[in-house]
Amino acid sequence: MREKILEITNATMQFGGLIAVNNLTMHVSYQEIVALIGPNGAGKTTAFNMMTGVYKPTSGFVVLNKENITGMRPDMIAQRGMARTFQNIRLFKALSVLDNVIIAQHLRLKSTWPGAVLRLPRYRAEERLMHERAEDLLRYMGLWDVRHEVSASLPYGMQRKLEIARALATQPTMLLLDEPAAGMNPAESDELTGLIRGIRDHFELTVLLIEHHMDVVMDISDRIYVLDYGNLIATGTPEEIQSNDDVIRAYLGVDEDEA
Amino acid sequence: MKQKQYAEGALPRTRQRKITSTLLTVALLAALAAALYALDTNASSLVLRIVRLCAINVVLALAMNLINGFTGIFSLGQAGFMAIGAYATALLTIPAAKKAMIFMITPLAPPLDQLTLPFGTTLLIGGLLAAGAAFLVGVPCLRLRGDYLAIATLGFSEIIRVLITNAQGLTNGAQGLKNIPPNATVWWCYGTALVVVIFMALFTTSSYGRALKAIREDEIAAESMGVSLFRHKMLAFMLSAFLAGMGGGLLAAFNGTIGQDMFRVMQTYNVLMIVVMGGMGSISGSVFAAFVVTIGQEWLRVLDGPMTIGPFHTDGISGLRMVVFSMLLLVIIIFFRNGLLGTKEVTWASIGRRLSAMAGHKRKEAAS
User: Fold this and answer.
1) What are the strands, taking DSSP E only, across chain B?
2) Are residues A138 and A251 located together in one domain of the fold?
3) CA-based nearest residue in chain A for residue B199
4) Residue B92: inside a domain
């Protein structure tokens, strides 16, 4: 059995009287691609926010690489190797594509700010390395030609790709993708599927994604978790999920005529 | 011929450009120094006052731009930090004999009553004290967002002023301080401004500066990319306060007298006006606007005097220049939403591009 990179145990997120995520237990193993699916409002993004430190779980634990990260700030969790993209694209809009990817490497910088201001040799070496890494990433993601563009001016699909490039720049071991195929046409989402697999192999990553495009989910996932109203209602391989009655009822809806 | 090819090969274009821009910068600085020298020896004291005030405003505007423009934190505490720097410099440079005369009601607390230090040192001490105050204010305030932070820092600035008014044995209270040695020469003002400009240019283009811009663009995304919001905001806040403290010190030596009413909120707004006009997040914008605003406010002074326009005659409406000036500012805000330069910088490369674009345009015109 491969080692578990991300492990969530009995995590609950409660906002006042609303239980957004109820007693969620799940894990993602090394180099797996796992999907978290469910109807709108099922608590998928809330679950992501608990894992990345945006929310502190009301109860339960989140463990990353065998370290308990429950209640840590997002920047501390990012430093420990978890990176994410956002459902409603959150790029550094006014900055260039290149800058977006370079900034994401700031967390690995060892130089202090006086060293950076004085451009000490160590800082210069680090800066050069950051540029090289950013350039490699942009080439890999097919964003090289637009590297000097302002990120907000990119077409939608490219902005999504840039979000992934920026997340990769933090040198994560665990990558969380929040609806990476949202707003993409079938051809684009097909390409994305290949890209995510490629990233997983190339960067030796473990991937957890939220996605609504069922063809993407079924194609790419090793395993799937299904949330409905904050509860985990099913888990298994794509085949198992596709034939699961609970999932069909909750997620795909009941056909009124047959019911 | 062969030698020429070799020379071109040895100098790639980027390095050639670097050398060109360095040479141009050196030439510009030399021209500036020569102009300042000429002004220093020939110009009237009034003109020299304005010339020096320009440089002080450059320092103050850049200090504010670092936190408000580059980091996107709307802080209104500038006057407070300036006051700390101004009082530090004043108290540490006024000669002991004069201090005894100034502090008539309550004598100045030792060892300050005997202590005098070189001007440069006092500027640094003023900056450090302001940065220390920024740390104390920042711990509770920097967790706030937007308007709340603006109000909290505004409150801090007023607290400093009230403390100054009441700490009779340290600040001489409402009587203020006078006989501050006139150390703020053209050279000190422009030297400080130059160092601050260079510092800002190096800092904002470093990885730390980029992290601050990321916070400005999207806090949540920046934090998710591993940028510690509190540490970086605190760094920007303290550096900004340090520079404001130095600017305050310069202003004290420039004025010769200081009092608590110099550091009202209006002082913060004056600097904010320069920063907004030049462009939040642009160093060259702040430098440019500091000159425009300082000279403009002086030049518009004629509006306050008696005027005859056609059949109308006024004996002078005091405050008319501020009305006109505010209207100019409004026009700028309306037509240049992001200030004159936005977040862009004027560099030799950008000037070169502009010039070659203009030349290309002319060539096209000539061809058609």
Assistant:
1) 307-309, 312-314
2) no
3) A117
4) yes
Q: State which residues form the domain around A95.
A: 90-170
Q: Which of B224, B233, B240, B338 to mutate to test the interface with A (most CBs of A within 10 A)?
A: B224
Q: Could you tell me which residues come within 8 angstroms of residue B157 by beta carbon, excluding any fewer than 6 positions away? A: B76, B77, B78, B79, B80, B83, B263, B265, B268
ipTM of predicted complex: 0.92
| pLDDT surpassing 60 at residue B65 | yes
Q: If pLDDT is split at 50, 70 and 90, which confidence band does B9 have? A: very low
Distances B270 to A110, B54, B68, B250 between C-alpha atoms, Å: 38, 13, 14, 16
What residues does A36 pair with on adjacent strands?
A210, A225
By C-alpha distance, the chain B residue nearest A52 is B224
Angle between helices B186-204 and B207-217 (to 10 degrees): 70
The answer on A151 and A200 residing in a single domain is no
For residue B237, what is the DSSP state? H
User: Is residue A162 located within the same domain as residue A201?
Assistant: no
Nearest to A147 by CA among A85, A102, A206: A102
Question: DSSP letters along B102-125, please?
Answer: H--SSPPPTTTTT----HHHHHHH
Same domain, A157 and A232: no
**A214, A115: one domain:** no
Same domain (yes/no): A117, A230: no
Mutate to test the interface with B, among A56, A75, A97 (most CBs of B within 10 A): A75
CA distance B202 to B196: 10
Where residue A179 sits, what CATH number does that domain have?
3.40.50.300
Domain ranges, residue B151: 47-305+315-367
Range of lowest pLDDT (A197-211, B10-24, B206-220):
B10-24
Residue type present at position B336: F
* CATH number of the domain to which B80 belongs: 1.10.3470
Domain boundary among A149, A170, A191: A170
The whole-chain average pLDDT of chain B stands at: 89
> Which residue, among A76, A100, A117, would best test binding to B if mutated, counting the most B CBs under 10 Å from its CB?
A117
Q: Distance (Å, rounded) from C-alpha A234 to C-alpha B93?
A: 76
Count the domains in chain A. 2
For residues A221 and A140, state if they share a domain.
no
Helix B45-64 crosses helix B283-299 at what angle (to 10 degrees)? 140
- Minimum-distance CB partner of B217 among A76, A83, A93: A93
Burial class of A111 by CB neighbour count within 10 A (0 to 12, 13 to 18, 19+): buried
Instruction: Write out B87-100 in H/E/C secondary structure.
Output: HHHHHHHCCHHHHH
Residue A134, min C-alpha distance to chain B (Å): 13
Query: In this structure, are A250 and A147 located in the same domain?
Result: no
Which residues of A lie closer than 8 Å to B, measured between beta carbons? 52, 54, 73-76, 78-79, 83-84, 86, 90-95, 99, 102-109, 111, 113, 116-119, 123, 126-127, 130, 166-167, 169-170
- Show which of A141, A170, A199 is a domain's final residue: A170
- pLDDT value at residue B139: 94
Assess whether pLDDT exceeds 80 at residue A91: yes
Q: How close does chain A come to B151, measured CA to CA in Å?
A: 26
Q: Which residue did the predictor score with more confidence, B1 or B168? A: B168
Judge contact between A33 and A216, C-beta under 8 A.
Answer: no
Task: Report how many domains make up chain B.
Answer: 1
Q: Does B111 sit behind a cis peptide bond, omega within 30 degrees of 0 on the bond before it? A: yes
